[in-house]
């Protein structure tokens, strides 16, 4: 999250606004609104994932319907899956804003309210939330968002696509006999099979690397979830 919220902090020595009945009611409605928006965007995430699964299923049906069928649909579907991943990553950045706000209210307001030993107190967390409303922006970058969607969904979709493609090459139209035959089957038009093999290695190496790098970034950023820097 941006540091812009610091511009909206309470004056030094201030105790913040006390939670009277009106404030609690308003915050409850605010929370319901954030949960509703996060639910809507969560549904949109599921939609793009479903599209990716369905298109992969269609490609599998076409490719494995006959031993003589071309494996090319499994290559083309990789482009579609990548497009769906890009769309879903953009949507995830919106979803993450509403999810983070709802979670922030839960941990700083509702959790203390439910504990018998304490009550929610005005404090710095209000400044963080207010700053996020006054200067709204994404809480996560595009590449980190893509890495999260890869690790949670698309790693399995792309992995299955790769296994299906190489499985088709190996078993159809007859079981593979040698490496030269593998490259011959992988050739696409004027593009030689060896080059297609290298392109495939590069493609899958890129998304695996992205998943690992963004995982390390997430671990570094969220190694401690305590404090106001944890929002988002």
Write the layout of secondary structure elements.
Layout: H1 21-63, H2 72-114, H3 124-134, H4 142-171, H5 179-186, H6 193-221
Helix pairs in contact: 1-2, 1-4, 2-4, 4-6, 5-6
What would you note in describing this structure?
This protein is mainly α. It has one domain. The protein is built from six helices and no strands. Helix 2 (72-114) runs antiparallel to helix 4 and helix 5 (179-186) packs across helix 6 (193-221). Residues 1-15 and 226-230 have low confidence and may be disordered.
Mean pLDDT reading: 84
Name the overall outline: elongated
**Biggest sheet statistics:** none
Indicate the radius of gyration in whole angstroms: 25 Å
Order of helices and strands: HHHHHH
Helix content estimate: over 70%
Name the poorly predicted regions: 1-15, 226-230
Secondary structure tally, helices = 6
Q: Using DSSP, what is the number of strands?
A: 0
- The total number of structural domains is 1
The fraction of residues assigned to DSSP E strands is under 5%
Give me the secondary-structure category: mainly alpha
Distance between the termini: 6 Å
Tags for this model:
disordered C terminus; 232 residues; mainly alpha; disordered N terminus; elongated; 0% strand
Short structural summary:
By secondary structure, the chain is mainly α. 71% of the residues lie in helices and 0% in strands. It has one domain (3-230).
